[in-house]
Amino acid sequence: MNLKNFSKYFIKQKMMRTVIISLIPIIFASIYFFGWRTLILLGIVTIAGVTTEWIFEKKYNRKVSEAVFVSCILYTLTLPPTTPYWIAVTGIIFGILFAKEVFGGFGKNVFNPALVARAFVYVCFPTPLTIEWSKAALGFPGGLGTYITEGVEAVSQATPMLLFRDTGKMASLMDLVIGNVSGSMGETSAVLIVLAGIYLIYKKVASWQIMAGVLIGFTGLSSILYALGNNQIPNPIFGILAGGLLFGTVFMATDPISAPKTKEGKWIYGILIGIVTVIIRGYALFAGGMMFAILIANTFAPIIDEGVNAYKKYRKESKAKKEEVAI
Q1: Checking DSSP bridges between strand 64-65 and strand 10-11, what pairing results, if any?
Q2: Do the beta carbons of residue 286 and residue 277 sit within 8 Å?
Q3: Cα-based angle 199, 239, 196 (whole degrees, multiple of 5)
Q4: What element of type H or E holds 65?
Q5: Angle at 169 between CA 163 and CA 175, to 5 degrees
Q6: In angstroms, rounded to a whole number, what is the distance separating the alpha carbons of residues 179 and 45?
Q7: pLDDT over 80 at 158, yes or no
Q8: What is the pLDDT of residues 7-42, one digit of tens each?
Q9: What does the pLDDT read at residue 50?
Q10: 266 with 210: CB under 8 angstroms?
Q11: CA 116 → CA 172, 210, 294, distances in Å?
Q12: Do residues 183 and 193 make contact, with C-beta atoms less than 8 angstroms apart?
């Protein structure tokens, strides 16, 4: 399909294409670490997601948004490499339908569709989403020569956050930076995620205020709890590099539709996500927490903007009254 024909069916969204470009190195890394099944899974999920949106948009004579491709990629990259195809497809259909289309389509959704899809399969299918993992490949050709890498059978080889939660042991920081650990397909390589974040900020596609807010909120609370000797809370550096926090910070929290629009609201929103992530990781049943923290913050995003705008209005009116009195 050439670009002219492509535009007949899809809304042109330059911002979304920029996000996809930033995700390409992470996609290739996921293939290297876990095998070609990651690419096949991505293809199947994308077909299911695009088809779902097309069915509902066709009813209103509207084009499919290019944002659906971003949702499909982000959702897929948050899944374990071994996720059954049918479960992955069920999740994206649910996410696109109930987090996007029921609200009226692109630009009207309250929640991030990729995260809603991930939360749905996480809750409904806990075993393949929390227990079945694959080892990260080493050397050359890595996972490029296999369909999928060897499965993990021992606790000592589970994801970094699960390993810490079950045994108190922490994976090598260097492995976390490079991505040579078990985990969700796109969340393991900190260096690639950070580079993607820098690229998105440079292109003015993602909010640096939200990213900074998440890191401030997370680092602040986790540092306090860690200093107080709370055994459930790892040191902040490990916490940032493990468990998908960076991936969620760069790609999910900064979703322009479900995040606040005001500058001050973005800071509050980011800090809220960071704080809630620490609480969920340390005291809830879930080893991660970033996914639920962002969805909780999505709920408050409109209220945060309303509060910020109301405060600005109050300050402006107060200033005007003071000037009248002075006159």
Answers
A1: parallel
A2: no
A3: 10
A4: strand 64-65
A5: 75
A6: 23
A7: no
A8: 667 778 889 999 999 999 999 999 999 999 999 999
A9: 95
A10: yes
A11: 31, 20, 10
A12: no
| Domain residue spans of the chain | 3-312
Number of Cβ within a 10 Å radius of residue 7:
12
> CATH top-level class for 3-312?
mainly alpha
Residue 57 to residue 319: CA distance in whole angstroms: 48
DSSP SS3 for 132: coil
The model's pTM: 0.92
- Crossing angle of helices 113-124 and 67-77, rounded to 10°: 30
Provide φ and ψ at 232, rounded to 5°: -85, -10
Both tokens assigned to 153:
């059978």
CB 267 within 8 A of CB 246: no
DSSP track, 143-157:
GGGSSSPPBP-SGGG
Q: Is the peptide bond before 141 cis (omega within 30 degrees of 0)?
A: yes
- Residue 201 carries which DSSP code? H
Q: Which two tokens stand for residue 248?
A: 């969620």
- State the average pLDDT over residues 44-71: 92
**Residue 34, beta-bridge partner list:** none
Find all residues with CB under 8 Å of 129, minimum gap 6, and list them: 79, 80, 83, 87, 121, 122
Question: Which run of H or of E encompasses 301?
Answer: helix 290-326
Count CB atoms within 10 A of the CB of residue 184: 23
Distance separating alpha carbons of residues 315 and 92, to the nearest angstrom: 44
List Cα–Cα distances, 9 to 65, 108, 270, in angstroms: 9, 20, 35
CB neighbours of 161 closer than 8 A, spacing ≥ 6?
Answer: 242, 243, 281, 287, 288
User: pLDDT digits over 76-101, tens only?
Assistant: 999 999 999 999 999 999 999 999 99
H or E element in which residue 64 lies: strand 64-65
Q: DSSP character for 59?
A: T
The 10s digit of each residue's pLDDT in 176-205 is: 888 878 888 988 889 999 999 999 999 999
pLDDT greater at residue 148 or residue 131: 148
